[in-house]
Amino acid sequence: MIDIRWKAALFICALSIVSVFLWLISSLVTALVVFALGLLLYLVNHIRWIHQLNNWLKTPDIRQVPEGSGLWEDVYSSLLKYERSNTLKQTELNSALERFQIVANAIPDGLVILSAANTIEWCTSHAEYQLGLDLKTDKNLPIVNLLRSSHFIAYLYNEVYDEPFKLKDVKSTESTLEIWLIPLATKQKLLISRDVTQIEKVDAMRRDFIANVSHELRTPLTVVGGFIETLSDMEGAIPSNIRSYFGMMQDQTTRMRRLIEDLLTLSHIESNTQAPDNNPINMSMLMNMLLNDANALSQGKHKITAQTNPHFDLTGAVDELQSALGNLVSNAIRYTPEGGEINISWQLHHNQGVFSVSDNGIGIDQQHIHRLTERFYRVDRGRSRETGGTGLGLSIVKHILTRHQAKLEITSELGVGSTFSAVFPKARIIQK
């Protein structure tokens, strides 16, 4: 196929040759008139084809592509090929989109695509059912206009999506949805909703069972412990050859009571669906309390230091956070050999409040770190028993931090030491 530029050049050359020939056999005026008329007809012809092309582009139809002549024959031929290729790609794209819609709607979880401005761009039928949406009417509407839970709105704008959010079903207070938000590379978000009603019921039954059993065991253990303590204090009540057994009984009773108290605490935190208090906490005062408790627990066996940034405080439930942060401090003391160093710190890092406890103790192997917050998980069962641990402390810490939209970060090296950090979001920081 000859390039259309060459075709145009050939026409101009042919017209020029004819005009020169007429000049030679006739006159210059005749040659110029013929050349001008030729160019005019050439231009009119192009205008006519451009007009047809413009009309076709208004309502493109591959079945009615104009059949040009001359230069325009190549143009319309190329346009027809392009349109056929575009139609084929569009058909393939529609087919792929249809398959994706079928697969996405087959997933039992609800899927919602949110824009950078948190408006609804697309969702599956399961998401419509679970969240009470209608894509036909709700498309491009902000998700917060439809899911009006204040806790969900805080979760959405907090932009910390390490843990899922539990949402009571908008259609039934007996149903519970687990919401995951996954940031995408295009600044969009993928919202995944999962019906966890049955799982929540099973968990509630488990929590109630543990709480009831623990509550029932606490009273008899208190009675038994009281009798053992009374007998141990009575002069001559216990023969000297079996007195050591009473000491062992007292230690095990105390350990069981501590375990039951931790179980009750964890059960209470898990079953508490209410948001924690949002009261200002004087962190300088809290740090001093934690330092005093640490020194009392250590009894001078460790070198304990504290660094506090006095220019910002925290909001939350002071009793819960004191328990969680104190647990991190007591763990450091229990697992740091005598003579070791422990540092307690409260600092601002990337607009987030970071409470950390560092030690140069025994450290933790990397394979255990991701499981430390599991209930009853122990790196060294023998050492945990010696230090009086119940295996529930870090699980309690994790649940308290989660209630405050915070997270627990752990770094450790075996034989070097560990750092446990509670990282609080910017929304809970109070600048002084």
UniProtKB/TrEMBL annotation:
It catalyses: ATP + protein L-histidine = ADP + protein N-phospho-L-histidine. It comes from the Bacteria. PROSITE patterns: HIS_KIN. Its EC number is 2.7.13.3. GO terms for cellular component: plasma membrane. The chain crosses the membrane at residues 12-44. Keywords: ATP-binding, Cell membrane, Kinase, Membrane, Nucleotide-binding, Phosphoprotein, Transferase, Transmembrane, Transmembrane helix, Transport, Two-component regulatory system. It is an enzyme of class 2 (transferase). It is found in: Cell membrane. Its main location: membrane. One of its GO terms (molecular function) is ATP binding. Residues 212-428 form the Histidine kinase domain. GO terms for biological process: cellular response to phosphate starvation. This is histidine kinase. It comes from Methylotenera oryzisoli.
